[in-house]
Specification:
single chain; 565 residues; alpha/beta; GMP Synthetase, Chain A, domain 3; 3 domains; nine-stranded mixed sheet; five-stranded parallel sheet; phenylpropanoid metabolism; AMP-dep_synth/lig_dom; ANL_N_sf; ligase
């Protein structure tokens, strides 16, 4: 068999872009996108993506150039997940909540050649462009207008500094004279996503066509997504391309319900109006749905995939009582989606609800698309004991891992080690049954008097308190202990006016936690600060806890510091 070699017929580059091409044939007359009173079919979406890709190429954008998008979950944002790479360029989604200075840094770092900008975000992006150093070439700008509030004819977009409008490019695109640009190699870069808004050392994660094909396919299988689901876009598409469900929905001919913004009321209304079957989001979205005054049992089950942070068991329990079928997954930008999930065993259905919720809060086992997942000692690389207690760093190995960080060889080598593993920076344990459970980010572990305190465990206890709406625990500097746990909490609406005291929360924790894990300070807030993906901004809370460490340890002093958040 030594003379058998790969052939052009069996070694075509893998790319998730082919999902759209197939969807136009199989699901051509079926609804692809719904946004307010706009509806497109999969045939429409395929043609529109080709037209945009054609226009991008006509602007002088070449294979490998970076094209950025700053937009919420609207139809243009969805279409650009296909259209940009179909032009041969690399797609760069930018967090819509970043400030102008950070966006400017990311555009410069990526050397973006073209930026699609939502109408409501134009002033921020224009300010970002104005911050470019003299002599540095700025990218072309295309304005995305909202059909319901603006009209291309209402203003001269060129005066605003834009080359054209999105719909203008759709009209100018040539479907008959343009063939979408297929990758020469499946390892060709397809997307660039920044992991955070840091300006000192941006970490731009580069993914190949191959890795995104694998994760998009794997995500559908792992979540058991059927043909033609109705998917509600509550997860920002700029966050790891919507965990790769942007491409996944094309593979199964799903209907994408797009939302410019959302809250609990909009979500419940959309579920009822469009008969939604699936949605994704961070645990904070689960919490928001469970605690909303509008919450009431659903008529039909709705599948909710959550990730980004370990969901407290009490939140899972409350949400499932409403009719949501909660699945818990774990992933990171470096793997483009969910790569560990809590694969459910039928025998667990026999357990009490509280036990089921605790099991569901675990991250679980590797998905089919992953090769290996382990928890190891961060220095020796040796696997930790499978006792559910011994902490270690979570490491991954599989086909959906990133190519590396853009222009950051040091960061790439630190993450992608020579021993063949990707080191995540997440701290976890391995249970005897082989299921993984995250205990914290390495930077979120609190070391108090030499003891490791998992902020996640303390938060899980706080969430069982009936008055607590949101909770986050971070390290607060302490002269004696080095660090002590500091809890930031918001209260449920019906408890805001009859506010508990700090000692009430502390006593609640003392009854349920080892003494060293009990917070030494509790700060009440109207709402905890969050990132654009719904994660609580622990870095902000850590900064204020650090400032609080210089003040007397009292609730009054803590509240004064928190009021500046």
């Amino acid at each position: 068999m030594d003379n058998l070699k790969p052939h052009p017929a069996n070694s075509c580059p893998l790319t998730p872009l082919t999902f759209l091409e197939r969807a136009a044939i199989v699901y051509g007359d079926c609804t692809s996108i719904v946004y307010n009173n706009i509806t497109y079919t999969w045939s429409d979406t395929y043609i529109r993506c080709l037209e945009i890709a054609s226009s991008i190429s006509s602007l002088g954008i070449q294979r490998g150039h970076v094209v950025s998008v700053v937009a919420p979950n609207i139809p243009a944002m969805y279409e650009l997940q296909f259209a940009v790479p179909m032009s041969g360029s690399v797609l760069n989604n930018i967090n819509t909540r970043l400030d102008a200075r950070t966006i400017s840094v990311l555009l410069q770092h990526s050397e973006s050649k073209l930026v699609f900008v939502d109408y409501y975000l134009r002033s921020t992006v224009l300010e970002a462009i104005s911050l470019f150093p003299d002599g540095l070439t700025t990218p072309l700008l295309v304005l995305i207008t909202d059909h319901h509030t603006t009209n291309d004819a209402d203003y001269d977009f060129s005066v605003l500094g834009f080359r054209d409008t999105y719909e203008g490019l759709v009209e100018k695109g040539s479907v008959h004279e343009f063939e979408w640009v297929r990758p020469n190699n499946e390892w060709d870069p397809m997307t660039l996503n920044y992991t955070s808004g840091t300006t000192s050392s941006p970490k731009g994660v580069v993914h190949s066509h191959r890795s995104l094909f694998i994760i998009a396919f794997d995500s559908l299988v792992n979540w058991c997504v059927p043909k033609q689901p109705t998917y509600l876009w509550t997860l920002p598409m700029f966050h790891s391309n919507g965990w790769s469900y942007t491409w996944g929905m094309a593979a199964v001919g799903g209907t994408n319900i797009c939302l410019r913004k959302f809250d609990a009321g909009i979500i419940y209304t959309s579920i009822k109006l469009h008969k939604v079957t699936h949605l994704c989001g961070a645990p904070v979205v689960l919490n928001m749905l469970a605690n909303s005054p509008l919450a009431k049992p659903l008529k039909n089950p709705v599948h909710f995939l959550t990730g980004g942070a370990p969901p407290p068991a009490t939140v899972v329990l409350r949400t499932e009582s409403l009719g949501f079928v909660v699945s818990h997954g774990y992933g990171l930008t470096e793997v483009a989606g969910v790569v560990v999930s809590c694969a459910w065993k039928p025998i667990w259905n026999m357990l009490p609800a509280t036990e089921r919720a605790k099991l569901k809060a675990r991250q679980g086992v590797r998905t089919l698309g992953m090769t290996e997942v382990d928890v190891v000692h961060p220095e020796t690389g040796v696997s930790v004991k499978k006792d559910g207690l011994t902490l270690g760093e979570i490491v991954l190995r599989g086909g959906c891992l990133m190519l590396g960080y853009l222009k950051n060889p040091e960061g790439t080598s630190k993450c992608l080690r020579e021993n063949g593993w990707l080191y995540t920076g997440d701290v976890g344990v391995m249970h005897p049954d082989g299921y993984l459970e995250i205990k914290d980010r390495s930077k979120d572990i609190i070391i108090s008097g030499g003891e490791n305190v998992s902020s996640v465990e303390v938060e899980s206890v706080l969430y069982t308190n009936p008055v607590v709406n949101e909770a986050a625990v971070v390290a607060k500097p302490d002269d004696f202990w080095g660090e002590t746990p500091c809890a930031f909490v918001s209260l449920k609406e019906d408890h805001v006016h009859k506010k508990p005291k700090e000692k009430d929360i502390l006593e609640f924790c003392r009854a349920r936690l080892p003494h060293y894990m009990v917070p030494k300070t509790v700060v009440f807030m109207d709402e905890l600060p969050k990132t654009a993906t719904g994660k609580i901004q622990k870095f902000s809370l850590r900064e204020y806890a650090k400032k609080m460490g210089m003040l007397p340890t009292t609730a009054t002093a803590a509240a004064a510091a928190a009021s500046r958040l």
